[in-house]
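Can you please make up a whole protein chain along with its backbone structure tokens because I've never seen that pairing?
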Amino acid sequence: MKTLGTHNYYVYILTNKAKTVLYTGFTGDLAKRLYWHCHPDSLVRIHFTFRYKCFYLVYYEQFQEAELAISREKQIKGYSREKKEMLIHSFNPTWEFLNDRM
């Protein structure tokens, strides 16, 4: 059964400062998730994004249905590095860090 109302779900790509590592994720609250990636508690400091310093948002898509967002996340995770770079470039040609926009 679907819930009435508007919901926001996001698929996003983070990178490190040197733009050498890419991380794809899914969330219902992008601002909160970005904060969590940048300020993890001691229990999650082993997480990929903390280990590889992937704190910088370079790409995101917004969805109103969680199932569509999860499907898209899986699709992007299956992409080659080259295809992910093309996706980012089409959305954010200069790979500007978008964290402050969330």
Observations:
- The beta strands are 9-15, 22-27, 56-63.
- The longest helix spans residues 66-77.
- The first strand starts at residue 9 and ends at 15.
- The helical segments are 30-38, 48-51, 66-77, 81-91.
